Every structure is written in structure tokens, then in C-alpha cells.
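thread: overnight batch results

M.L. [08:02]
morning all. the overnight job finished for the chain we discussed friday. pasting input first so we're all looking at the same thing
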Amino acid sequence: MQPSPKTDVLMAVDTALRPTGFVRRGHVWLQERGDGALGWLGFATSGSFDLTPLVGVCFKRYDEVCRALGVGASTTPLVSAPVGYLMPEKPCWRWTFTPGGDHAAVASSLVSAVLKHGRPYIDKYAKWDALSRELVAKPESLLDFERARKLAIIHLLNGNVGAAREVLRKERERVVDCVDVSARSYRAFAHRFELTFA
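M.L. [08:03]
and the structure it wrote out:
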């Protein structure tokens, strides 16, 4: 059986990534950064031949808390951004692999952009203390639907259970009358958090 065109594309990218220290784990590539931090690289796909690279940072300690609370998947980045967003003039958001074309050349171009524009992002955020301070100081940099969850876990990991509870309390008040899936999910998360880390 022949591999799919998408598999061919991902194999070309995987080959180009090997010398960089990124190792494929399922549908993402991870790079050990020390102190429990992992550089993260994932791809949004459109069709069989277009890839939009995203870079981010995961922390094993954050993942452990998420696992204990039954939220998120393992090695989900705490922060992430599309490589195109990190490029100064944002000239390229996706890389197109032409059917039957030179996948190695396109993969090499994609990996060069990841290294040039994505690696500095990973370098900046792969230090827990610096990232957690920044997110606590600028919570608006987190998406609305994930802000309270992430901040509560960050406070917990930094040893400030009182601040974690305060974040949870404020979000609970904000969504008290909401009945949508997000609000119900948040209330279940807050309840598990309080039971687990009482």
C-alpha cells in the first residue's frame, strides 16, 4: 500500500527536522529544553499539501497537573504561536507541497523558518519562572476560554494556592449564569481542582 500524499509530506518534514533536535511524538515534534521544558512544533493542515507550522512550549509539571485534573492532552503547549505570526513581515503562513514536487526543498524552507523565527519564541518561553511571571502579569495574553484554567494551574505550581482559588472564584462568578458547554466545562474543572488541591 502506498503512503498517502500527506504522509509523504510529513515524512519530508520529519527528515528535515532530524538534525534540529525535534523528535516526532505522534502528531507533534518535541525538543528537550531542560528543567522539564519541551519545545513543541505542530502543524495545522489544509488539504494534503499545505502545512501551517505552530511553535510552543510544554512543561512536564504543567502536564502532570492537567493529567491529575483530567484536562488537556499530554504535551499540549502552555503557549504557542503560528510561525507566520512571528515573522517580521508575516510573508508566509503556510507552506505548500506540490503533488509530485520536491518535498525535501519545501520541507527545508519550512524548517529554516521554524529555526529562524520559531526557535527564539521557544527560547524565550522555555523558562518556567519567566513565562509564569509574564502570564500572571498579562493574563489577557491568554485566550478567554483558557485563561482561568491556565492561571489557576500556574499559581498552584508556583506555590500560591490562594491566588489559584481567587482566579477560580472570579471566573465562577463571571460564568455563573452561563449554560453553554464552555461554562459547564469550566465549573466541572473548578470543582475537580478544589477537590484535588484542597
